[in-house]
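Sequence only, no structure available. Ideas?
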Amino acid sequence: MRNAPDLIVVGAGVVGASCAYYAARAGLTVTVIDRGSVAGGTTGAGEGNLLVSDKEPGPELELALYSTRLWRELAEALPARIEYEAKGGLVVASDGPAMTALGDFAARQARHGVSTETVPGERLREREPHLAPDLAGGVHYPQDAQVQPALAAAHLLRAAGDRLRLRLGEEVTEVLTGPSGEVRGVRTSAGELHAPYVVNAAGSWGGELARLAGVELPVRPRRGFVLVTEPLPRVVRRKVYAADYVADVASDSAALQTSAVVEGTPAGPVLIGASRERVGFDRSLSVTALRRLAGQAVRLFPVLATVRALRTYAGFRPYLPDHLPAIGPDPRRPGLLHACGHEGAGIGLAPATGRIIAEGLTGSLTGGQLPLDITPFRPDRFDRGDDL
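Reply:
I predicted one. Tokens follow.
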């Protein structure tokens, strides 16, 4: 491998790993730089959700459907240790009006390629035997899946082979530019590295990296907590959440929001998320958030009332004002590409993001024909006053 790579990816989470994987597959040499470890940021604090069920019809849903297909391909190409499970999701409604709203939402999704199946309240426990008995009904989403995100990131990097060099524990302190403002590489705590392209896959810190390159990208962190229970038999078969989770995902509120997402894992523990609040990079434990999540999870699955929570962890979701990620080249800084701002959907959207980045550089993976319009993800859209 040459000393100077074709491409530098800043960020060794699952999005950065996907960019590196697809770029290497397209024939590029790649160096991935991270100030921490592989999956040491948002990826390592994620549940591994690969969801279409929570997406309104529009650009993000199209991106999620594309990524769903790519995750299936990756599940065949990568080791089983990534714990990919195409187990489906179940969204439930507590009463009649909530079920009507959920049914309308699912019908709109179905017109845009999402597979949905309405489940009457009396049949919910056929799908999830331990669900609360008084729910009005739900919608089953067979395309929802799950992966172990840290393992997925690690194996994507490994699968890139000898075209990839990994440099951990190095913080990028400057994006190097040439006389015409074009990207020339980066300076890190270990020195300079030159390349004609730099990918910003820095997650919640993507706004900081953009500023090092002299451009503005309004990425902000949203803190979230996940509860992890003691190992259990498979009491939760799918990913299950209440319908109000969809509204929380789309909300612009800075206040604490909680809506339990409950799922079993192959290793036995049950994972309980998700909370959202904008508190900067404050990692302080929020007992209020954890109590709400635990209470909501028990209302969905009363069997969890006597189960011990062994630990909790916090992470930051990279939030952009219009709830869409920034993907692709930045026209304000030639040679700079962005792959960040996915909020809580980064793990699910990672393969599509990585493939779009590689396609933009080489055009060799899909013959130059992507299955969706990436204009809504333009990194400079906020400069033009869109969705502020």
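The two ends are 43 Å apart (CA to CA).
Hope that gets you unstuck.
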